[in-house]
Specification:
Order of helices and strands: EHEHEHHHHEEHEEEEEH
Number of strands: 10
Structural class: alpha/beta
Largest sheet: 5 strands, mixed
Number of helices: 8
Strand order of the largest sheet: 3-2-1-9-10
Strand content: 15-25%
Length: 245
């Protein structure tokens, strides 16, 4: 079976494993994580990334937060305790400010600690993220899918996914009437589903499905099983509150 999740944003590794177990995810299955593992909460997603990179059946697809992190890789060449930023180029200053504005501090702190204590693990983690693709295409059951973090900016059905620029794939937020390909379904995240009136639950259209259920804001991520489009939601305190328990 093929499962997809998105926008974990520092969600508890323990609760994330519980969600996988609830869905029956096992060694013969494959999990695709369509971006934004890092930033905002918990340890900034560092523990989940370290787990992912050791799993042969887990694939990371870059999100805008991973892209921001990679653009700011220069940061970890400095002693952060005494770092002033005065020697950064204007582009580096812009990239770092953008990442800071999007919840970077917890990730920076935990990555710096990882580099200090386990430099080879840090190096491997950064390379793992750097080598992650921007999208994936697959068939599950009778259906074809494209997995991408944000969507396809200025969509043209005649364009192949690899003809879109990085920013077009990781920063796009489609409107609810946006139409993608008719012969395949796009699975995306990036935009919390509450934007479409489906807080904490996936949002489905004729040609795409949004599975960002709001972990960035303190909610929980979800899993989607592609073979039958069955969603799995976390049953932690946030979910119980949502269900009126």
């Amino acid at each position: 079976m093929n499962f997809v999740t998105s926008d974990i944003h520092g969600y508890s590794p323990v609760l994330f494993i519980e969600l996988l177990e609830k869905a029956g995810f096992g060694p013969s299955d494959r999990l695709y994580v369509i971006g934004d593992v890092i930033d905002r909460n918990g340890d900034g997603g560092v523990a989940v990334l370290r787990w992912m990179m050791k799993q042969p059946n887990v694939t990371l697809i870059k999100g805008n937060h991973e892209v921001m992190m990679l653009k700011c890789g220069f940061l970890f060449e400095h002693d952060l305790e005494n770092f002033s930023g005065k020697d950064l180029s204007p582009q580096q200053q812009h990239d770092l400010l953008l990442w800071h504005q999007n919840g970077a501090m917890v990730t920076i702190r935990n990555l710096a600690m990882l580099k200090a204590s386990e430099p080879e693990e840090f190096k491997g983690l950064m390379e793992y993220v750097r080598s992650a693709p921007l999208y994936a295409e697959l068939t599950a059951g009778p259906k074809r899918f494209i997995l991408v973090h944000g969507g396809f900016r200025d969509f043209d059905p005649a364009k192949r996914p690899d003809e879109y620029k990085e920013d077009d794939l990781v920063w796009t937020r489609p409107e609810d009437d946006e139409q993608y390909w008719e012969d395949r379904t796009v699975i995306l995240g990036h935009t919390p589903t509450q934007y479409y009136g489906k807080k904490g639950r996936m949002f489905e259209t004729d040609t795409w499905i949004d599975i960002d259920t709001g972990a960035a804001g303190g909610g929980s991520p979800m899993l989607l099983r592609l073979e039958d489009l069955k969603p799995f939601y976390a049953e932690n305190g946030t979910e119980k509150e949502k269900n009126g328990e």
